[in-house]
Specification:
Chain lengths: 353, 269, 316
């Protein structure tokens, strides 16, 4: 089976700046794939490379097995939902959606029928005659989606499409997008800097940092088994422990990470494989569903501990700032970290045909 | 700081300034309908429409109007093409010499008209080209380009580049994108730029004096009239006409480009 | 929806236009060159070529006896610029350009200030158009209107008489340096016409620079205890200097190169522009005319260097 999109040692340089640095990814057909990273990490450039707005400086990009180098955007079976939606202001909603069909020479009747179908798919029946300026942000976003989907692409690229929406709408759109992707069975490549968004929607996530990929994995593995310090700190909250303390706690000088919710306050007898450490509780933040504690260890490092407020009676109430506490966690919860991603092994160019 | 209300002194200075700007223009309109036929005397003696028909019966006036219109049309057309090409080339990509090119476009209106006029004249002479309508058009087109360029580049900068990418992404090639996306978004900016370029060309006199040879555009006709006091009423009517042809486009351009960008910038004449 | 997403074949009809499109996509530099070549050819060949040619002619020799130009290179024309007579022309023009710039700034400032700070919405649009229209209105007609205004028995005289200002005018006209026998043949008259014609070019840049002043700055000044007058002198005026400087580029260089207004209004005596016009026309001394065009270019270059320090280019 060929991959939907395959990057092989792709680099993109802007002058001296390596926006994308020797990236290799295989994105499966029908997968919901997210590219996650801070701004400037190269994720959007990767998306633009797939769409054809940028050309790789080195390496090869294959889309469904076909080499994409030199193919202009209009000859790629890929459509994009833009961050600013990029709706054509001089056209009404229906003409916007039908544009892709029009430039491909689809007849008018067919165009209108398919545009209206696409609009109903995003729950915007009856909005065809409106101009984009007459729509709310969420509605524009749906039009942008319909405009891309009406062309029946095999790969849909989404460039932070939810960034401009408010929280409630964003959460609603997240689940709708996910549902749509399952329904259509096409590949979604979703760029975001929001880790919650990436984790909740994706089949797999690539974490970008400084133009390189730190880790490609399922959301669960990203969280539970971050490969690098960067991933551990960018995805969720982590206590990264290194140096002498790491040696003392794990018996190994390599850095490790421990999630705040995997640390408990020591009560009763420790299990044999538990790690225990003590310090002073110096801050307590009540966050509703959980309470977060900052524990200053005797070695000087601060550990963040998170306890779910799952009991009706608030169990955290008897902890007070300034109190001396002992915390413990299961040895298995410690994840060894690497500072940089391991070099990906050379992949032989894939001969699809 | 100043309270929300302006002081009386400031109000008088501001509104008085506006009156100062418009009073001479008003005078032109008043005199065009003056019954008296010889002098500049004030106040006017009476109201008549007679001079308008007299002026439009004069072959030399009609001749000059026709010439000026022809020149303004062709010069505007050339300016539209060159100005649009230049703005499309300069608005986004950075390349070596970009600043030099934009400076070169502005130079013809930034340098005094006598320099442009004399330079063109001496070049035409050196090449053995007889001054006439063609040479006037070349001169006008040269300084009209920047007007179109300013309007179009402002619109291009205001238009999100992702519109062009979206169009290509949806399957439109460069030509289709130009036709369906760029042109409709540029249309009113082109019209505004074209109108201003037309007004500028229709009125230009300094460069034209050098490049006109024996041709008489309307402004040159007017200038020659000033040494002929007998003809004052006809001159007044033509002056009013020229005034309107040059003032109305600014209104049109204003309404076409309203919303964020400056109409023509201060790069006037 | 249950549609099957087959995906259209990426290669469709390959019209010549699409071939061309693809070519431009793959060769962005070719695309850029195609856009740039026509304007570059026009400006490079026609405009810059002419300018350099003109400069070159400044080195040619003009024979006073045969009234002909020979391509023998000489610096005599540029030297002749410093003749007392020619120097007079330059000084006269320069003085006028400076005076006009200063006066325009003084007249323009209240208009621009009122526009920027006390008008909103429709009134602002009205002011904007009311300044733009006279700016674009025909230059020659505006000059003509002033000959009507200033003529004997014309509007200006009528007003002067009816307001009882005749003695004041007489006194002004008898003043050395600015006077003349009548308004239309005096330096004062010429100066007024210049100020009128270039005034809008001064108003708009000042207005733009005042418009950019954040209101919070003025609040801050007031909050720190400044009186309105102090705020104006210490905050508003200094921050509008770039706008004034930008506007003065126009008033200065436009006055410097003009030769129509000096011909229509004011006392006899050449301006740089009329000198150039006369040299190439009536006298036929193209090399001297060419040398003379260098004067406004140099003066403007010097002026630009000065106002650049005042931040004029940021206000353009």
């Amino acid at each position: 089976m060929t991959h939907a999109v395959q990057f092989t040692h792709v680099s993109r340089l802007f002058g001296e700046v390596k926006a994308v640095d020797r990236v290799s990814i295989d994105i499966e057909d029908g997968e919901f794939f997210s590219m996650l990273g801070p701004s400037g990490s190269g994720k959007t450039t990767c998306l633009r490379l797939i769409a054809g707005f940028e050309q790789p400086s080195a390496g090869s990009i294959r889309i469904h097995g076909q080499e994409a180098a030199g193919l202009p955007p209009y000859q790629r079976d890929v459509n994009t939902v833009f961050q600013d939606y990029a709706l054509f202001p001089h056209m009404n909603v229906r003409d916007n959606v039908a544009y892709g069909l029009k430039v491909k020479g689809v007849g008018k009747a067919e165009r209108i029928k398919r545009a209206d179908e696409a609009l109903s798919m995003v729950a915007l029946e009856g909005y065809g005659a409106r101009k984009p300026v007459q729509l709310s942000g969420g509605q524009r976003q749906r039009v942008a989606l319909a405009r891309a989907l009406v062309n029946r692409p095999r790969v849909l690229l989404l460039d932070e499409p939810l960034g401009a929406l408010d929280l409630k709408l964003r959460e609603q759109m997240q689940s709708e997008l996910k549902k749509l992707q399952r329904q259509l069975g096409i590949t979604f490549i979703f760029v975001t800097h929001d880790q919650t968004e990436a984790l909740s929607m994706s089949d797999r996530v690539a974490v970008f940092n400084k133009g390189r990929i730190e880790q490609v994995d399922t959301p669960r593995n990203l969280y539970m088994k971050p490969a690098t310090t960067f991933v551990a700190e960018f995805v969720g909250t982590s206590n990264v422990v290194r140096g002498e303390l790491a040696q003392a706690l794990s018996g190994n000088p390599d850095a490790f990470s421990i999630r705040p919710e995997h640390i408990r306050f020591a009560e009763g007898v420790a299990a044999s494989r538990d790690v225990e450490v003590s310090g002073v509780l110096h801050d307590i933040q009540y966050q509703g569903s959980a309470t977060r504690y900052e524990v200053k260890l005797d070695s000087g490092q601060t550990l963040t501990v998170s306890q779910a407020n799952s009991q009706w009676l608030d169990t955290g109430a008897h902890h007070q700032a300034g109190q001396r506490v002992t915390v413990r966690w299961a040895r298995e919860a410690m994840i060894a970290l690497h500072d940089a991603p391991r070099e990906s092994p050379e992949i032989a160019p894939c001969e699809a045909h | 700081m100043h309270s929300e209300k302006a002081s009386w002194g400031l109000k008088i200075a501001a509104w008085g300034g506006l009156v100062f700007l418009h009073f001479p223009i008003l005078i032109i309109f008043v005199y065009a309908f003056n019954t008296e036929d010889a002098a500049f005397s004030f106040p006017p003696k009476g109201f008549t429409l007679k001079w308008i028909s007299v002026a439009f019966a004069r072959p030399d006036v009609l001749e000059s109007i026709k010439l000026s219109l022809q020149i303004a049309c062709v010069a505007t057309l050339i300016a539209l093409v060159l100005g649009t090409l230049a703005s499309a080339a300069l608005y986004r990509r950075d390349f070596f010499g970009k600043d030099g090119i934009s400076l070169m476009l502005i130079l013809p209106i930034a340098l005094p008209g006598i320099i442009t006029g004399l330079a063109l004249l001496s070049a035409f002479k050196a090449l053995g080209i007889e001054p006439g309508m063609f040479t006037i058009i070349v001169g006008h087109a040269t300084f009209c380009v920047v007007i179109v360029y300013n309007n179009v580049i402002a619109r291009l900068r205001r238009t999100s580049h992702s519109l062009i990418e979206a169009s290509m992404d949806l399957g439109a090639d460069g030509w289709q994108t130009f036709r369906y996306i760029i042109m409709p978004n540029l249309g009113s900016a082109l019209l505004a730029g074209g109108m201003l370029a037309f007004a500028l060309s229709f009125d230009e006199i300094i460069v034209t004096t050098f490049t006109a040879g024996h041709e008489r555009t309307l402004p040159i006709w007017l200038l020659n009239q000033l040494s002929r006091p007998r003809d004052v009423p006809v001159t007044n009517v033509v002056a009013m006409l020229v005034m309107m042809v040059t003032m109305l486009p600014i209104l049109g351009a204003y309404y076409l480009t309203r919303g964020g960008e400056s109409v023509a910038g201060s790069g006037g004449k | 929806m249950g549609q099957t997403f087959t995906g259209s074949a990426p290669m469709q009809r390959q019209s010549p236009l699409r071939h061309f499109s693809n070519l431009l996509y793959r060769r962005p530099n070719l695309y850029l060159s195609l856009l740039l070549i026509p304007p570059l050819l026009w400006f490079g060949a026609i405009y810059l070529g002419s300018l350099l040619g003109l400069l070159w002619q400044g080195f040619y020799t003009f024979d006073d006896f045969s009234m002909t130009v020979t391509p023998d290179l000489t610096l005599a024309n540029f030297g002749a610029l410093f003749n007392p007579a020619n120097f007079d022309v330059i000084r006269r023009t320069l003085t006028m350009a400076v005076a006009v710039s200063i006066a325009s700034a003084i007249v323009a400032f209240p208009i621009a200030y009122y526009m920027a700070r006390y008008t909103t919405g429709k009134t602002k649009a009205f002011f904007y158009i009311a300044v733009m229209m006279p700016m674009w209105a025909s230059y020659i007609v505006k000059a003509y209107a002033w000959t009507l205004l200033l003529a004997k028995g014309g509007v200006a005289q009528w007003f002067v008489q009816h307001l009882g200002l005749a003695p004041v005018l007489q006194w002004l006209l008898s003043a050395p340096g600015i006077g003349g026998s009548t308004l239309s043949t005096s330096h004062l008259g010429r100066f007024m016409v210049f100020v009128y014609i270039w005034l809008p070019f001064m108003i708009l840049p000042i207005q733009a620079s005042l418009e950019r002043l954040p209101p919070s700055l003025l609040h801050a000044s007031a909050d720190l205890g400044a009186t309105p007058r102090q705020t104006f002198m210490q905050v508003i005026l200094p921050l509008s200097v770039p706008g004034i400087a930008a506007g003065s580029i126009f008033t200065f260089s436009l006055t410097l190169g003009d030769f129509i207004v000096p011909q229509l209004v004011g006392p006899p005596g050449y301006f740089i522009g009329s000198m150039v016009y006369a040299q190439q026309g009536a006298i036929g001394n193209m090399p001297m005319a060419a040398a003379f065009t260098l004067v406004p270019i140099v003066l403007i270059a010097i002026y630009l260097a000065i106002v650049k320090r005042l931040g004029a280019f940021d206000a353009l």
